[in-house]
Amino acid sequence: MNFDLNIDRTETSSLKWDHVHTIFGVTDALPLWVADMDFAAPPAVIQAMHDRVDHGVFGYTLPSQNYLEAVCGWMKSRHQWSIKPEWIQFCPGVVPALSMLVSSLTEPGDGVVIQTPVYPPFYRVVKDQGRELIENVLVQDEDGRYDIDFEDLERCLAAERTKMIILCSPHNPVGRVWKREELSRIAELCQQHDVLVVSDEIHADLVFEPGAHTPFAALSEDAAQRSIICTAPSKTFNIAGLNTANLIIPNVSLKRKFAKTLETFALGAITPLGAAATEAAYREGGEWLDALLTYVRGNMEYVRDYIAEHTPEVKVWLPEATYLLWLDFRALGLPDKELSKFLVEDAKLGLNNGASFGTVGDGFMRMNVACTSATLQEAMRRLEEALSRRRMEAAGS
């Protein structure tokens, strides 16, 4: 669990490291964008995959009973949520699942609510399938904290065309872990207006206060029967490339509809390595995850303190979950394209453009701090020097 170990990820077909020029148009930007980590997966996960490779046969594979029990055990131990194996539906990724859920559980023209600024694929899975996108914009206070505008949310859910809400819980990119009372209020409104809930809980394990996350389906029986919970080991254990996700669907009818969609596209089989890695992660990965969260929190605090001392033009709020920081550059007064150009060409940093999370993300950038502390120190040095040059140029003019 040496998170300071610098692992060279170049020339591994890494989206994050080997495609910097494709994404940012330069070759020397330090990539701190897409949400995967620069750390090796837990030793137990690596060993499980070695053992599976040594077997030598990689035929068609389905989730085993042991696999399902490992998922159930993790939900119980990590989130105090008792689920049944028959509620679990494998899917090769949460984003494909979101797309298929919109397709199979709504009709063209139906309204789907999202809470913005939010993970960019939320927009695509709605718009690309001819559904109407309805935005419930989160409200930011003076301290940078985001809250739900419940008056507006009720308006959105009450619309006759609204059939679904896609939650991001915990929220990406703003890092909120929704409190139980906030989720309960959402559940009440969805029950009142008969709206389905798809809850993307892929970051649920990456919370800094143990037990703070509440699975939406654990709120009540009605919440369980009108919701689909999207989970995955991918972000938690840095195995996103294995394309393994588990949807938890207590409602038999909803699960049957989704399973039918998976069958239509022949997407029900898991890879042998994905199965081995997921089971090992959920059975033996807890200690590694605890150490990871401590390291990531230290990285976040370092960025917060460095920015406060050296780059006060930028604001940052420590999130309650995820390894992502939502940086506020609005004080620079730069239009979105100019801000991106400044960070890429002057600061040599590759961050996620806040505008891609919705228009309310203009002036923000998302930074992935799941990297070595040395990498982060280099990033902060680059940012400070670029902003210092900008100040001198402004003073000279």
What report would you give on this structure?
With 397 residues, this protein is an alpha/beta fold. The chain has 2 domains: 15-42 and 287-387, Aspartate Aminotransferase, domain 1, CATH 3.90.1150; 55-284, 3-Layer(aba) Sandwich (Aspartate Aminotransferase, domain 2). The chain is built from 15 helices and 15 strands. The protein has helices spanning 15-18, 20-24, 43-55, 65-79, 94-105, 121-127, 150-158, 180-193, 221-225, 234-237, 252-264, 272-284, 286-310, 336-346, 373-396, and strands spanning 30-31, 88-91, 111-116, 132-137, 139-140, 146-147, 162-168, 196-200, 227-231, 245-248, 315-316, 324-328, 349-350, 352-353, 364-368. It has a 7-stranded mixed β-sheet with strand order 2-10-9-8-7-3-4, with helices on both faces. It has a 4-stranded antiparallel β-sheet with strand order 11-12-15-14, covered by helices on one side. 46% of the residues are buried.
Strand content: 5-15%
Biggest sheet architecture: 7 strands, mixed
Shape assignment:
globular
The N- to C-terminal Cα distance equals 50 Å
Per CATH, which architecture of the largest domain? 3-Layer(aba) Sandwich
Could you give me the name of the CATH homologous superfamily of the largest domain? Answer: Type I PLP-dependent aspartate aminotransferase-like (Major domain)
Determine the fraction of residues in helical runs and give it as a percent range: 40-55%
Please list the strands of the largest sheet in the order they lie side by side: 2-10-9-8-7-3-4
Number of helices: 15
What is CATH's topology name of the largest domain? Aspartate Aminotransferase, domain 2
Kindly provide the radius of gyration, computed on alpha-carbon positions and rounded to a whole number of angstroms. 21 Å
Contiguous runs where pLDDT drops below 50 for at least 5 residues: none
Please count the beta strands (DSSP E, at least 2 residues each).
Answer: 15
**Total domain units:** 2
CATH top level of the largest domain is Alpha Beta
What string gives the helices and strands in order? HHEHHEHEHEEEHEHEHEHEHHHEEHEEEH
Secondary-structure-derived class: alpha/beta
| Averaged pLDDT | 97
